[in-house]
Each structure stands twice: as structure tokens, then as C-alpha cells.
């Protein structure tokens, strides 16, 4: 096994035991990038020199006995919406082609403090506006999309081009690429991780979080990045647990809610079957199942869009007027439309959000977690971004993907996507585990026990 | 002399000196020197005699007020107490629900409305033993600063300000001992300032707004109007606290505002803005505020020049947020009964409907900058404890005037009255208006103190220290009574 | 909000007064089409009985 194939947890154990040097690990990852990046294009910028310097520094520190913890010397990819001092941060847009920030964003500051090695900036759908990431391909099938908007991070982690890819999630943009690329992806609770210095799509819906190969790796990254930051007005000052401590808690005694509506409508049969089988695995491990109805289902997407349209257009207001022709056509159109949404419509969505939050609180009164497909369908072809449903209807891929992931954005609830199988065509399928506010540790325990009981992780993209 | 006759004589002397303050009345009632029934009867008689001149009340609760006063008196006779405000006559702005009575909010749209339950503040006042005298005039849905038809007791040709104009007019004329107001851009402090009273807008989330008709939920605050700072402290003590029924309410412990009220202000750091707050202010106002600062220095305060970043954004962001939130609240009624609104309000609500979502979002972003601007002045090692400014740039405008003179220009009355109060709404900070003199024309002038979130106590201590050295708050308006 | 009638859009130049954004004539049709679709989605909220529900302004995901 090459070093780049290791999990963070395994690599960390070897680094700590001085069986693996951060320099070797980084070189292994950089070689892997050299080998596969031409097919995938996961990165907007590869920062090989920065990575080599950081790896050398980590190696020296560790040799001197100053081991910082499980992320010390671990190669990471950072979504190109995250500001990185001295390194271009383009948001995969011509509008920001020349933008080089002076400061790191909060998450990069924390990852740097934890000793990580940044190997590059990963592609996003332009300004995080879609679930396709047209620059990038899916390592499992190069004809397919990697999902988005954190498509570069999903593809890079799946292909072994980094051990964690940071993402952001406004309508599913961490979980969508995680699901279609066969990685783990966590959208934490709204307010858990600081968004300072990450380009906004929609302030009231944006979340940042990691994509990794395993559940434990996600827990290790959360330990480094979670916590209150006054400079992000959404951040909530609540105690931060040790996300790795409860990983082996299991599911015995937990009640899993299984939806009887919303997540059962217009869903690919292979996806539905895989998630049902996964629920069966959890039951076998001691979980109880309870069928639940998703409340107010028809209002989830109107609320998501009613919030996102005007917030996004407010963020882009000046850039649209100054550089409108530099946006891609779909993003420009989206921004123009958002300009015409009235404030009273936005308020209506804010009020609807309150009702939805109350309704989901009631939904969780009888369950500990909700388990549902992360996405209605696996990765679509990059040449045809449309889903064709059995009833003859079609749906744009982004719309279909956002449909199942938006509830956790509107409610702010944490949601973990874990791989739960493959289609006959060999494309990954994900299930999402949604939990109560700030109950990430419960989600990680459920994900961990499932991951340990199954072998999906053993599969790797052929490339 | 019988005991009854003795009490009557004492009451006569308490009331002959003018209506007592809340603090004085609590003491006199507690000492048995003042009968709650006599006090309420006296207040009701004043309302009957003087309110026709002032139009400060929309509804007077004669029967229920007397009944409550009697129950307080009976309780005292049994050796019991009905609470810290027992027997104190308090008026409520007609936005506060009182079970079984209409909350008209100054609007024909509300005709026929009857509240099912008390607002939280109403309930807390009653539970503290207060006698609710009635409902006071407000600008329609609190969306303005005029409060017609109420008049200013200091000069009935001028407005009392608004939107809590009826409350201020009534307290100034001693038609109640204290009154509740609400404040979205200054609507407690503006009328308090124009009527020579103390007005306290507490921190956003400190006092429940459940059962108080909304104008703009993210800027609305509920608070008291009184004659003295000590009275404001007593009222705040009774009404502050977390209310799960109000989503804006914040679960923050309520300190004791009364015990340390006389602590003094030795070493208090008072920030005096060098930007914005004194830029366009009548010289009479500026002089009075500077004289008030000198009094604070005599009392031991230290003045510090400060700059409040971004505060100049306030007017735009507040008018956008109020416009949008008011339009959202009235979206249904403006379609079903448009003719029931006054022309001004209808025009404002329709204008609010045309504001784009991006403008509202950007107003909330600007608000963040104003919050951070105040934080930079009020926190950290070099931070000040309070910020002192004029409450208003001008004195009371003429009744019926659409514009007022400000910095040599004619501006709409709203723009003349709220520029210095609205920043504390945008930032959610506590702010206290304290009388600090009179203009040559005999109209009241006012000092505003703003503080850190949930630090009403420091404002009250500072305002109280000022009032112990000055007597502006003891002057009475000329109502031809003597 | 059941009393709200369906939207019929005035020419974009009227809406542009509010947004202060000029839409070139050659883009008007596509923008108008998208705007109509967007409003079809969000106007579903008209049927939600909001009552006295306050908005989640400073959104806090906690339930307490």
C-alpha cells in the first residue's frame, strides 16, 4: 500500500511512531496528484512547494519531540472558496481569477495550527452555485460528475490526492460530492465551525466541514476545526466535545427514524435499496427503527431558495455590476434573478424556517437520528446533467441532489453522509445520518459502527 | 384625631407637594402615609381634569384601576404586600395587550380588536401590584414620532414626540406615575426627551415583547418612561427577565438594579463621541449636554473622546429594516383593508413592499458593522463604560409641522428626531434618556447614555448620580394648576 | 397569506428600479423566464399558515 492510500488515523499513528515521515507522506500524495490529476482536475491550484516546506517543518518538529496531534503532517486539500494567505483563492470563477488573500480563513488557521500540510486548492462549482463542478471528473467514472459544489474536494479525497478535503455546504455541497465520490462528508450543525474567510453563498445556510475517506478521519478533523469564533456571527458558543471519543459507542438502544415520505419520492431504486439495506445493518447492530413522516415537506425547498436567492445576490451585488460578463451564464442568471426577490418574500422564508425548525424538533422527539438517502440518484454523466425518472419526468441534476440535502441546511441540523454501497454500474451511493443540534458525536458513532460492519471502504476507484 | 383622619392629613401633604415619584409613593404607601386608593383617585381626577388638554390617553381604566387600588389597600390592611409596585398607577402605551380590552395601536385597522391575554409586561406589572390606569396614545402602529393627537405638556403647541407620545405626555402631566413605551428607532427616548422625562430602552432581549404589537421585530424594544432614574430602575426590576414566549427574549440573569443605585460614578469612563452625534445638533442642546458632562465629571467620571465606527450607516439600515419588517407584518391587512390605514402609514407600508431582498440583507450586514463599531468603543482595556450624547438634536417641533429645523435645513420631523437614538436600536444596546435642562423657550433638553449589552445597571447608576446633583427632573410643566 | 394573487410581472425595467440593476434587452426574456420559475418555487410559501410566527433572523439552530 502506498502512503497516500492510508487513512488519517493510520498515517497519524505511523507518523507519531516515526515509522512514516510527513515528507514521505506528502511526496506520496504529490506523486499521486501527478499521476491522476490530468484525468480528474480536482485542483484549481496545487501548492507543491508550500506542501513540501510544511512537511519538512512538520518532520523537524516531530523529530524534536513536538508532535502536535493526529493531523500533524497530514496532507489536506482546501476548497477554493477558503481564503489562503498568499495563495490564489479564485472560487473557481473568472471574477476572482486574480484574487490572492492576505489572511487565512479561520479553518485554515486551525488546520495549520494542527500541523496539516496543504497540497492544494480544490475546485468548486463557481462560487459554490451548483452541484456539478464542471471543471472536475468523478474518479469512479471519468464520464461522470463529482458532484458539488465541493466537487474538487470529493474527487481529490476519493482519488487519494489528499487525505481530507475541506468543503462548504449551503444546499448539500459537502454531502453531494461525498455521496457521488464514495467518501464520508459531514455538514456540522449551523454555528459549530467558523466560516470566517470562506466566500459566502448564503450566510444563513452556509456551513463548512470536512470530506474524508473514513468516519474516524472526519472526527479527527472536527477536533481541529470546531469551536466558537466571534467573528462569524452564526457561530454558537457551546462546549466542543472530543469528536473521536465516542466513536465506538455503537447503536444499541438508539432509535433510527426512517422517513415514509419526501425521501421516498423520486428516488433511484438502487439508492433506495442500498439505504434500506444499510438500515437493516444498523438494526442488526442493535438499533431500533421507527417510521416517521417528514413534516411540511413541500415548504423545504421554497424556504431554501427564498433565503438563498437574495442573500447570494447581496453578496455578489457589486461584482455583478462591475464584472457581470465574467460569470458563467447559469451563475449570472441566478444572481440576476435573486436581485428581483422582494424583501417581504425573504422575510416569508425566514418565518417559514422558524416553523420548519419547530416541526423538525417535534420530529426528533421520538428518534435519535434520521437515516435517509443522501441523494435521490448517483452521479450523472457530465454530458447530460439531467435525471430521467420512471414516470417520464426529468429533473436537473442540481435540483435533484439539493432536494434531499436541503432539509439539513434549512434546519441547521448536522448531517453525515457515509458510503453505503454501489450501483450495478459501480457508482457510489451514500446515506445521510441527520441528528439533533450539536449532536455530531451521535452521527459519527452511527457512521462508525456501520462503516466497521461493512466493506465498502475496501473498494477504491480504478483510475 | 382618629387614625383615619391622621392618614388623610398625611396624604394631603404627600399629594399637595405634587404627585410623588414612583420611589416616593412606594415608600409612602409602605409607611402607611399614603393610601393606594387616594393615590389612584387623585390620578384619575387629574386625568379627568387635564387629559382633555393633552389627549394622552385613548382609554382610562377607571373601574379596574380603583378595584386594584382597593385590593392593594385591603392587602396592606391585612399586613400583606401585593408586590414592589403595589398601588402605583402605571399607564400602558396602546400597543400592550390587556386582557379583555382592545389594543388599537393607534389604527382603525385594529377596530374591534380585543386582547385575549395580558402582555408579559402587563402581567408582570400587575403581579408587582401596579394599578393600570389606562392605554396611552401612540403613533399609528408606532410607525412615526408624532403621536397625534397627544400634546406636549411643556407647550401644548408642540408635539410630545413618539411613538410613545401619550405615555410621555401622561407621565409629564402626572396623569400616571410611570408609563410603558416601546422603542424601534427612539420611540421611548424621543418622547421622554421632548417631555423632560427619563426613558429607558433596555438591551434587546432584556424585556419581553410578547403581547406588544410589533412594528419591526428585530428593532423593537419595550421599556419604561418615568420622572426619575430611580423610578426607571424600579420599573425595570419588575419587568426584566427571560420569556420563552418571546423569541427575541434572551435568558440572561437579571441583576439587582436597586441596591447599588447610589454607588456613585467615581472613575466611570464616559465616552464622548467626536463623530456623528454632535455633528448636527442645536447649540442649545449641545451646550446643555456639555454642561451635563461637566456635572458627571464633578461626580467623579472621566471623559474620554471616542469615535464610533460606522454609526453613520444607521439611518439607512434602520429605515430599510423597519420598512421591510413592517410591510411583512401588514402584508395581509394592507391588501384587505387598505383604506383603514392613514395615508402616511399606507404609503410607508407599500414602499416597504418594494424594497428588494438584497437591500434588506445588506441592511442586516450594515447592522453588523454598527454593532461591531459600538463594541470596539465599549469593550477591551481602553473601552469606555458608557457613551454620552444628546438624546435629540432639537427641541419639540410644533404640533402639525411636517418638518423641523436641523443644522439650518428643513428636514422631515422623523429625520430631525431619531438620528441620535436609532443607533442604540441598531446595536441593541441599552440607552437611557435623562433630562438635562431647558431651552430658552422653556422646552426640555435631554442627555442620552448608552452602555454595554445587559449593563443597564451602569446606565442607571450614572443617570441617578446625575439626578442627585441636578433638579431638572423636579420641574413641572405649566398646566395652569397653581 | 391566502389572499395574495399570483404574480404577473411588469416589464423588467420596472423591477429594475427596485433592484437598481439594468438587464440588457437581449437577456430580458431569459431572466424573466427564470424569475418566473423562481417565484413559482418560493410562492409555495404563500400557502403556509405563518400566523404569528417570527422570522429566524439571527438564525440559531439550537432548540432551547
Commentary on this structure:
- Chain B: InterPro entries: Amidase, Amidase_CS, Amidase_dom, AS_sf.
- Chain B: Pfam families: Amidase.
- Chain B: Residues 38-460 form the Amidase domain.
- Chain B: This is Amidase.
- Chain A: InterPro entries: Amidase (IPR000120), Amidase_CS (IPR020556), Amidase_dom (IPR023631), AS_sf (IPR036928).
- Chain A: This is Amidase.
- The complex is a heterotrimer of chains A (463), B (482) and C (64).
- Chain A is 39% helix and 15% strand.
- Chain A is built from 14 helices and 13 strands.
- In chain A, the strands form two sheets. Chain A has an eleven-stranded mixed β-sheet, sandwiched between helices. A two-stranded antiparallel ribbon of chain A has the order 10-11.
- In chain A, β12 (415-422) and β13 form a beta hairpin.
- Chain B has one domain (3-474): Alpha-Beta Complex (Amidase signature (AS) enzymes).
- In chain B, a hairpin with a 2-residue loop joins β10 and β11 (409-412).
- In chain B, α8 packs antiparallel against α16, α10 crosses α12 and α10 (314-329) crosses α13.
- Chain B has 482 residues and is α/β, with parallel strands linked by helices.
- The model of chain B has no long low-confidence stretch (mean pLDDT 94).
- Chain C is mainly α.
- In chain C, 41% of the residues lie in helices and 0% in strands.
- Chain A binds chain C through residues 189-191, 204, 233-234, 236, 238, 296, 298-299, 301-303, 305-306, 309, 320-321, 333-334, 336-337, 339-342, 345, 347-355, 357, 361, 411-413, 436-438, and chain C through 1, 12, 15, 18-19, 21, 23, 27, 30-31, 34-35, 38-39, 41-46, 48, 50, 53-63.
Amino acid at each position: 500500500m502506498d502512503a497516500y492510500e492510508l487513512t488519517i488515523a493510520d498515517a497519524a499513528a505511523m507518523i507519531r511512531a516515526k515509522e512514516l515521515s510527513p515528507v514521505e507522506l506528502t511526496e506520496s500524495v504529490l506523486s499521486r496528484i501527478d499521476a491522476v490529476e490530468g484525468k480528474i482536475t480536482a485542483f484549481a491550484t496545487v501548492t507543491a512547494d508550500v506542501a513540501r516546506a510544511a512537511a519538512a517543518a512538520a518532520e523537524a518538529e516531530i523529530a524534536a519531540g513536538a508532535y502536535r496531534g493526529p493531523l500533524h503532517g497530514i496532507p489536506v486539500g482546501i476548497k477554493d472558496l477558503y481564503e489562503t494567505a498568499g495563495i490564489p483563492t479564485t472560487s473557481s470563477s473568472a471574477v476572482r481569477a486574480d484574487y490572492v488573500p492576505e489572511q487565512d480563513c479561520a479553518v485554515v488557521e486551525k488546520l495549520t495550527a494542527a500541523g496539516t500540510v496543504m497540497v492544494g486548492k480544490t475546485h468548486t462549482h463557481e462560487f459554490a452555485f451548483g452541484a456539478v463542478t464542471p471543471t472536475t471528473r468523478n474518479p469512479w467514472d471519468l464520464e461522470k460528475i463529482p458532484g458539488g459544489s465541493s466537487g474538487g474536494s470529493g474527487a481529490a479525497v476519493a482519488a487519494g490526492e489528499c487525505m481530507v478535503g475541506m468543503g462548504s455546504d449551503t444546499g448539500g455541497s459537502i454531502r453531494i460530492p461525498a455521496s457521488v465520490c464514495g467518501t464520508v462528508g459531514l455538514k456540522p450543525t449551523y454555528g459549530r465551525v467558523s466560516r470566517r474567510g470562506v466566500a459566502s453563498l448564503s450566510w444563513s445556510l452556509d456551513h463548512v466541514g470536512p470530506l474524508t475517506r473514513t468516519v474516524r478521519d472526519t472526527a479527527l478533523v472536527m477536533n481541529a476545526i470546531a469551536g466558537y469564533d466571534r467573528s462569524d456571527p452564526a457561530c454558537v458558543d457551546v462546549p466542543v466535545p472530543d469528536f473521536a471519543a465516542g466513536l465506538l459507542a455503537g447503536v444499541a438502544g438508539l432509535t433510527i427514524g426512517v422517513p415514509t415520505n419526501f425521501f421516498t419520492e423520486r428516488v433511484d431504486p438502487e439508492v433506495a435499496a442500498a439505504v434500506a439495506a444499510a438500515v437493516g445493518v444498523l438494526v442488526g447492530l442493535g438499533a431500533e427503527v421507527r417510521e416517521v413522516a417528514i413534516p411540511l415537506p413541500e415548504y423545504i425547498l421554497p424556504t431554501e431558495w427564498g433565503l438563498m436567492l437574495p442573500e447570494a445576490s447581496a453578496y455578489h451585488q457589486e461584482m455583478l455590476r462591475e464584472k457581470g460578463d465574467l460569470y458563467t451564464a447559469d451563475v449570472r442568471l441566478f444572481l440576476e434573478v435573486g436581485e428581483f426577490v422582494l424583501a417581504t418574500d425573504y422575510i416569508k422564508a425566514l418565518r417559514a424556517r422558524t416553523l420548519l425548525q419547530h416541526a423538525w424538533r417535534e420530529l426528533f422527539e421520538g428518534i435519535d437520528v434520521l437515516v435517509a438517502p443522501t441523494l435521490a440518484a448517483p452521479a450523472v454523466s457530465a454530458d447530460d446533467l439531467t435525471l430521467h425518472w420512471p414516470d417520464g419526468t426529468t429533473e436537473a441534476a442540481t435540483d435533484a441532489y439539493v432536494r434531499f440535502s436541503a432539509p439539513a441546511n434549512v434546519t441547521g441540523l448536522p448531517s453525515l453522509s457515509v458510503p453505503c454501497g454501489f450501483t450495478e454500474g459501480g457508482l457510489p451511493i451514500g446515506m445521510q445520518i441527520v441528528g439533533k443540534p450539536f449532536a455530531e458525536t451521535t452521527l459519527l458513532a452511527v457512521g462508525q459502527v456501520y462503516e466497521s460492519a461493512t466493506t465498502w471502504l475496501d473498494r477504491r476507484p480504478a483510475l | 384625631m382618629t387614625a383615619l383622619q391622621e392618614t388623610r392629613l398625611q396624604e394631603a401633604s404627600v399629594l399637595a407637594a405634587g404627585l410623588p415619584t414612583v420611589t416616593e409613593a412606594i415608600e409612602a404607601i409602605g409607611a402607611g402615609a399614603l393610601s393606594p386608593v387616594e393615590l389612584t383617585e387623585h390620578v384619575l381626577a387629574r386625568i379627568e381634569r387635564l387629559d382633555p388638554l393633552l389627549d394622552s390617553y385613548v382609554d382610562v381604566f377607571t373601574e379596574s384601576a380603583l378595584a386594584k387600588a382597593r385590593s392593594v389597600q385591603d392587602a396592606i390592611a391585612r399586613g400583606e404586600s401585593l408586590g414592589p409596585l403595589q398601588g402605583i398607577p402605571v399607564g400602558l402605551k396602546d400597543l400592550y395587550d390587556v386582557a379583555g380590552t382592545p389594543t388599537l395601536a393607534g389604527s382603525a385597522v385594529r377596530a374591534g380588536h380585543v386582547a385575549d391575554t395580558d402582555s408579559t409586561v402587563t402581567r408582570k406589572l400587575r403581579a408587582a401590584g401596579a394599578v393600570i390606569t389606562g392605554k396611552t396614545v401612540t403613533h399609528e402602529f408606532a410607525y412615526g414620532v408624532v403621536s397625534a393627537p397627544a400634546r406636549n405638556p411643556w407647550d401644548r403647541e408642540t408635539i410630545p414626540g413618539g411613538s410613545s407620545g401619550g405615555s410621555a405626555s401622561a407621565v409629564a402631566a402626572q396623569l400616571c406615575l410611570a408609563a410603558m413605551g416601546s422603542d424601534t428607532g427612539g420611540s421611548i427616548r424621543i418622547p421622554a426627551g421632548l417631555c423632560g422625562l427619563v426613558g429607558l430602552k433596555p438591551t434587546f432581549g432584556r424585556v419581553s415583547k410578547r403581547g406588544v404589537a410589533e412594528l419591526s421585530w428585530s428593532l423593537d424594544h419595550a421599556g419604561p418612561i418615568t420622572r426619575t432614574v430611580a423610578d426607571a430602575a424600579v420599573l425595570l426590576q419588575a419587568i426584566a427577565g427571560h420569556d420563552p414566549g418571546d423569541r427575541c427574549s434572551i435568558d440572561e440573569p437579571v441583576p439587582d438594579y436597586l441596591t447599588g443605585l447610589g454607588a456613585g460614578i467615581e472613575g466611570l469612563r464616559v465616552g464622548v463621541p467626536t463623530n456623528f452625534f454632535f455633528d448636527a445638533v442645536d447649540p442649545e442642546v449641545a451646550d446643555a449636554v456639555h454642561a451635563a458632562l461637566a456635572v458627571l465629571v464633578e461626580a467623579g467620571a472621566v471623559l474620554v473622546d471616542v469615535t464610533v465606527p460606522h454609526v453613520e450607516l444607521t439611518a439607512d439600515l434602520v429605515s430599510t429594516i423597519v420598512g421591510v419588517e413592517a410591510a411583512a407584518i401588514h402584508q395581509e391587512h394592507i391588501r384587505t383593508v387598505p383604506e383603514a390605514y392613514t395615508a402616511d402609514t399606507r404609503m410607508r407600508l407599500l414602499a416597504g413592499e418594494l424594497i428588494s431582498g438584497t437591500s434588506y440583507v445588506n441592511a442586516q450586514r450594515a447592522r453588523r458593522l454598527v454593532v461591531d463599531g459600538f463594541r470596539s468603543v465599549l469593550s477591551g482595556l481602553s473601552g469606555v463604560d458608557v457613551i454620552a450624547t444628546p438624546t435629540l438634536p432639537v427641541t419639540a417641533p410644533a404640533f402639525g409641522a411636517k418638518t423641523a429645523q436641523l443644522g439650518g435645513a428643513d428636514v422631515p420631523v422623523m429625520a430631525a428626531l431619531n438620528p441620535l437614538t436609532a443607533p442604540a436600536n441598531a446595536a441593541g444596546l441599552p440607552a437611557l434618556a435623562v433630562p438635562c435642562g431647558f431651552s430658552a423657550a422653556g422646552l426640555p433638553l435631554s442627555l442620552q447614555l448608552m452602555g454595554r449589552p445587559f449593563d443597564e445597571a451602569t446606565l442607571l447608576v450614572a443617570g441617578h448620580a446625575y439626578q442627585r446633583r441636578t433638579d431638572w427632573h423636579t420641574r413641572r410643566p405649566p398646566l395652569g394648576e397653581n | 397569506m391566502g389572499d395574495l394573487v399570483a404574480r404577473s410581472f411588469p416589464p423588467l425595467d420596472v423591477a429594475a428600479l427596485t433592484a437598481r440593476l439594468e438587464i440588457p434587452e437581449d437577456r430580458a426574456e431569459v431572466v424573466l423566464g427564470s424569475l418566473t420559475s423562481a417565484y413559482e418555487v418560493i410562492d409555495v410559501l404563500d400557502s403556509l399558515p405563518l400566523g404569528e410566527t417570527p422570522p429566524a433572523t439571527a438564525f440559531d439552530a439550537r432548540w432551547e
